[in-house]
């Protein structure tokens, strides 16, 4: 689930060999909803404890916009539940049903790979990362769930594809039988 931003030496030091990982408190994140001055005029959101600057998407993330509830908070659960409240955002990732984890990972990957939304740092939150930028026990447990959920999703997809192919074959067979019956009736 990492994409090169996380290292074993993640810290807030200014070592020349390892870039410092910025740790963001919930309070600091909450200030970045696009209504402040200076840096606080930026819009940040967090998904799975990864904080992104989404200011370029203010039309979506500014207060009062369709995804405005995501700004200034980690709303990992909200991404898949569709309930955009503070209470929902405060929920544990352990409350996310396994079937919804692939959709959450799609959202995480959307932000991580977005052309203009930039990674800011990690959220200091016992659900995600500690003060050293290391994943917490809860995050490590969630990552284990991600592996299982993605494997299960792949199996479900393969089963759907198999059924789709069977149905396609069956329809082709029925069409061929109808054509043969029609041809036989003409003789």
TrEMBL record:
Cellular component, GO annotation: endomembrane system; membrane
Chain ranges of the Cytochrome b5 heme-binding domain: 24-124
Residue ranges with Basic and acidic residues bias: 158-179
Domain of life: Eukaryota
Pfam families in alphabetical order: Cyt-b5 (PF00173)
Region called Disordered, residue ranges: 1-21, 158-187
SMART domains: Cyt-b5
Protein known as: Cytochrome b5-like heme/steroid binding domain containing protein
Biological source species: Nitzschia inconspicua
Lineage: Eukaryota, Sar, Stramenopiles, Ochrophyta, Bacillariophyta
